[in-house]
Amino acid sequence: MAFCNEHFLELQGAYLFAEVRKRAEAYKKQHPDADIISLGIGDVTQPLAPAVVEAMTKAVAEMGRMETFRGYGPEQGYMFLRKAIAEGDFKSRGVDIDPSEIFVSDGAKCDTGNMQEIFSDTAIVAVTDPVYPVYVDSNVMAGRGGKFVNGGYERIVYMPCYEECDFKASLPVHDPQIIYLCSPNNPTGTVLNRKDLTQWVRYAKQTGSVIFFDAAYEAFITEDDVPHSIYEIEGAKDVAIEFRSYSKTAGFTGVRCGYCVVPHALKLETKSGEMVSANELWDRRQCTKFNGCSYIVQRGAEAIYTEEGRKQIQATLDIYRNNARVILEGVKEAGLHAIGGTNSPYIWLSVPEGMTSWQFFDFLLDKAGIICTPGSGFGPCGEGYVRLTSFNTPELTRTAVERMKKALKEIK
Ligand code: PLP
């Protein structure tokens, strides 16, 4: 008999978004005529930019000709894209990242979930509460969670984020080795400004911890004081790994492409006190377990960095930004308290008094035909909130907001 990895048995319930989908489907079965609008799962709705489609079409044609056909590509990504990233995402902001520090992948979920593999299985992990569930679950699977007691894993350090502190975490009391930070944040939509990030980089240096900086929503930043990359902070290359995604930036949720930056300066320690390069470990990991993102997709991603591509994706991002504004204004008009939506596609909404997150989820589904994501699914501090997303068409967003306002009037 083969033994299972029992760490998997410590995982709690169904994956949040799967649970949301399951409940919504059950409702649709009972109410087949219900007209439901999803402001729940964070998937995009707008099509790819024409420049991206054109580049991918050209790449497909190349694949169909003997002279230009390509088989396996480099596991780290094609140099044309790594150079475009170094130039377009970093040099343009005064940050010097070498293409050899960039690893192209099929998205940030895999990267944020897999990066923990190059760390010791005894490493202490710190996450914010509420949190994007992938950070926690991937560490639980690897055995860093311990038992689930009183709403949390005993070996994970939770950094509660309360409304009084703008949903920003304080420095942890017990020093962890890995710290997950997400800015702009999923689910709260809040951001870490230059001062906040400087404090985190300083802390990581002092304690020898490594920051996993998830910047999947970087493209939504509108305020000047909010860094787009943690490497805009001096010294961050010694202590941080950054994750980026084209999913929300350029509608790549179904295309699949993202990247992470593992700086050469970042060193990890062996038990015998030797220092090893995190970049080399990740390179070895990727070469063993990953065969690269497709050539066609990487040509599509490269097109985002052209002048035309950049303009086109900004036009799409403006649609989502405007939707976020419409939602934020609408829920405020309905008398609810909400934050986010300014530097983020997410609006973090306080549920009406006396309701839990899941009760409000059921209320919105039943009375307004709206799907949201219950905040409690992101951690105990998410109880009392739901997350709404701006990833819908302007028409459906407006309809959803009107329906929400009407439904909320009824409970007043
Ligand atoms: N990181 C955060 C914070 C996310 O919210 C998401 C997707 O929802 C991801 C990473 C995953 O992105 P990708 O589609 O690139 O895998």
UniProtKB/TrEMBL annotation:
It catalyses: (2S,6S)-2,6-diaminopimelate + 2-oxoglutarate = (S)-2,3,4,5-tetrahydrodipicolinate + L-glutamate + H2O + H(+). CDD domains: AAT_like. Its EC number is 2.6.1.83. It comes from Allisonella histaminiformans. InterPro entries: Aminotransferase_I/II_large, DapL/ALD1, PyrdxlP-dep_Trfase, PyrdxlP-dep_Trfase_major, PyrdxlP-dep_Trfase_small. GO terms for molecular function: L,L-diaminopimelate aminotransferase activity; pyridoxal phosphate binding. One of its GO terms (biological process) is lysine biosynthetic process via diaminopimelate. Its cofactor is pyridoxal 5'-phosphate. This is LL-diaminopimelate aminotransferase. The keyword Zinc does not apply. The keyword Transferase applies. Pathway: Amino-acid biosynthesis; L-lysine biosynthesis via DAP pathway; LL-2,6-diaminopimelate from (S)-tetrahydrodipicolinate (aminotransferase route): step 1/1. Keywords: Aminotransferase, Pyridoxal phosphate, Transferase. Residues 35-403 form the Aminotransferase class I/classII large domain.
